[in-house]
C-alpha cells in the first residue's frame, strides 16, 4: 500500500503552500542522489518526496487527494508522481534546491553531477468525454493529437559555449578568496547541444508538427475532472538526449438521460401510477450493467427509496461498486374523467384512503438524512 503523502513529507493536512514547499526541500536535500551516491533506498525516498510534492503543491490535486486518496490519481498513470524518473523530478522541481548543490545548478539533470540538462518536451492537455456506461465498464479511446516531433534528418552538435557540459563556470575574487560558481549555459539552456542541420519545413529548433492517433486506456470508476497521464505522448524536445513530454487527459462526464451520479452511487426516479402503487407491480429498470427487474409491494408509498446494492459505479482501483438508489414517485393524474372523479369522490370518506402514517413510515427529511448518513 502506498504511503500517505502528508506522512512522507512529515506535515499535517492543515499545512499551507509555504510549509509544504519547505518540507519537500528538506526531504529532497536529505535524500538527494549527490548526497547518497549508489543508495537505492535514498533514491526511492527522493522519488516518494517528489511524488508527494507534485500533488500537495497543486491546489486542485491536493483537494482531490484529500477527498479520494491515492485512488484519485492511479487510473491510467495518474498525475505521474509514482512514474517519475530523476529527469522528470529535476526538470519540474529543480528550483526547490536553490544553491544547495553546486551553486546555480543542482547536481545535474540526468547524470547527477555532470550538470548537463536533459531537455524534456512540453506536455499537452486534452479532454475526453465519457458516458456513465464508459465509466462503469472502463473504455479505450483513440484520439488524434497534434504534437511536435523532431524532423527527419535534423542533427545537433555540441554547444561551443559550454563544450557540451550544459554549465558555465565563473571564478570571482572575494574577501574569502577565489569562489567558483556554476550556472546553466544560456546558449543551449543547459542541454549541452545546439542545432546543426535543420531540414526544410522545420522550425528554428528542427521540429515539425504532426498529427498522431493515441490510444488511451481509461479505467472504470473515474470521475469528472480527474486527470490521467499518457507518458511520452506530449511534444518532443530538441536534442539527441531529450525526452518527450506527456499527454494529460482530463475526464469530462456526460450527463445521463435517466441516471444521476453521486460519488459511486447512482440515483433513478421511478414513476408509477396510483393503481400500481396500490396493487403492487413488477418493473424493469435500466442500470449501467444491464436491465434488472424489481418487485414493488402492495401499498408502496411515494418517496420510498429502494437500494440495489452493487448496481452503481465501480470504486476506482479497488473492489466493489456503489449502489443504485431507486426513488419511488407515485404519479398524480392532472385530469380525470367523470367516472374517475366519481370514484375518488366516493373514496374520500373511505378510511382505507385516508393517510395514516405509522412509526415505520419515515418523513421526507428522515429519508434524506438516512440517505446521506
TrEMBL record:
Record's comment describing the protein's domains: The J domain is necessary and sufficient to stimulate DnaK ATPase activity. Zinc center 1 plays an important role in the autonomous, DnaK-independent chaperone activity of DnaJ. Zinc center 2 is essential for interaction with DnaK and for DnaJ activity.
Molecular functions (GO terms): ATP binding; heat shock protein binding; unfolded protein binding; zinc ion binding
InterPro entries: DnaJ, DnaJ_C, DnaJ_domain, DnaJ_domain_CS, HSP40/DnaJ_pept-bd, HSP_DnaJ_Cys-rich_dom, HSP_DnaJ_Cys-rich_dom_sf, J_dom_sf
Function: Participates actively in the response to hyperosmotic and heat shock by preventing the aggregation of stress-denatured proteins and by disaggregating proteins, also in an autonomous, DnaK-independent fashion. Unfolded proteins bind initially to DnaJ; upon interaction with the DnaJ-bound protein, DnaK hydrolyzes its bound ATP, resulting in the formation of a stable complex. GrpE releases ADP from DnaK; ATP binding to DnaK triggers the release of the substrate protein, thus completing the reaction cycle.
Entries under SUPFAM superfamilies matching the protein: Chaperone J-domain, DnaJ/Hsp40 cysteine-rich domain, HSP40/DnaJ peptide-binding domain
Family, as annotated: Belongs to the DnaJ family.
GO BP of this protein: DNA replication; protein refolding; response to heat
Swiss-Prot/TrEMBL keywords: Chaperone, Cytoplasm, DNA replication, Metal-binding, Repeat, Stress response, Zinc, Zinc-finger
Pfam hit, one: DnaJ_C
Annotated protein name in UniProt: Chaperone protein DnaJ
Cell compartment(s), UniProt: Cytoplasm
Residues the record lists as binding Zn(2+): 159, 162, 185, 188
Organism: Myroides odoratus (Flavobacterium odoratum)
Cofactors demanded by this protein: Zn(2+)
Any single Gene Ontology cellular-component annotation: cytoplasm
CDD domains (UniProt xref): DnaJ, DnaJ_C, DnaJ_zf
Free-text cofactor note: Binds 2 Zn(2+) ions per monomer.
Amino acid at each position: 500500500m502506498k504511503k500517505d503523502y502528508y506522512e512522507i513529507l512529515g506535515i499535517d493536512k492543515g499545512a499551507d503552500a509555504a510549509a509544504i514547499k519547505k518540507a519537500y526541500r528538506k526531504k529532497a536535500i536529505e535524500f538527494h542522489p549527490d548526497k547518497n551516491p549508489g543508495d537505492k533506498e535514498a533514491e526511492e525516498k527522493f522519488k516518494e518526496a517528489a511524488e508527494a510534492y507534485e500533488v500537495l503543491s497543486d491546489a486542485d490535486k491536493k483537494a482531490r487527494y484529500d477527498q479520494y486518496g491515492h485512488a484519485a490519481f492511479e487510473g491510467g498513470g495518474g498525475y505521474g508522481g509514482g512514474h517519475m524518473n530523476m529527469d522528470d523530478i529535476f526538470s519540474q522541481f529543480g528550483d526547490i534546491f536553490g544553491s544547495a548543490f553546486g551553486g546555480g545548478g543542482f547536481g545535474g539533470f540526468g547524470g547527477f553531477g555532470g550538470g548537463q540538462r536533459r531537455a524534456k518536451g512540453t506536455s499537452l492537455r486534452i479532454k475526453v468525454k465519457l458516458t456513465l456506461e464508459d465509466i462503469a465498464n472502463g473504455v479505450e479511446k483513440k484520439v488524434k493529437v497534434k504534437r511536435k516531433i523532431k524532423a527527419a534528418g535534423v542533427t545537433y552538435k555540441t554547444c561551443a559555449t559550454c563544450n557540451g557540459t550544459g554549465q558555465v563556470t565563473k571564478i570571482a575574487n572575494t574577501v574569502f578568496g577565489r569562489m567558483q560558481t556554476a550556472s546553466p549555459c544560456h546558449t543551449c539552456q543547459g542541454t549541452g547541444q545546439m542545432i546543426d542541420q535543420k531540414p526544410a519545413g522545420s522550425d528554428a529548433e528542427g521540429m515539425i508538427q504532426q498529427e498522431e492517433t493515441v490510444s488511451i486506456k481509461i479505467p472504470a470508476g473515474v470521475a469528472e475532472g480527474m486527470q490521467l497521464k499518457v507518458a511520452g505522448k506530449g511534444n518532443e524536445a530538441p536534442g539527441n538526449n531529450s525526452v518527450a513530454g506527456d499527454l494529460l487527459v482530463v475526464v469530462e462526464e456526460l450527463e445521463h438521460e435517466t441516471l444521476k451520479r453521486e460519488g459511486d452511487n447512482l440515483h433513478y426516479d421511478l414513476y408509477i401510477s396510483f393503481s400500481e402503487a396500490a396493487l403492487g407491480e413488477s418493473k424493469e429498470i435500466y442500470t449501467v450493467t444491464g436491465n434488472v427487474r424489481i418487485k414493488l409491494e402492495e401499498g408502496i408509498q411515494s418517496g420510498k427509496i429502494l437500494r440495489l446494492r452493487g448496481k452503481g459505479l465501480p470504486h476506482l482501483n479497488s473492489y466493489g461498486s456503489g449502489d443504485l438508489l431507486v426513488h419511488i414517485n407515485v404519479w398524480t393524474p392532472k385530469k380525470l374523467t367523470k367516472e374517475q372523479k366519481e370514484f375518488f369522490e366516493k373514496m374520500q370518506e373511505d378510511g382505507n384512503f385516508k393517510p395514516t402514517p405509522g412509526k415505520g413510515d419515515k418523513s421526507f427529511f428522515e429519508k434524506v438524512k438516512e440517505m446521506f448518513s
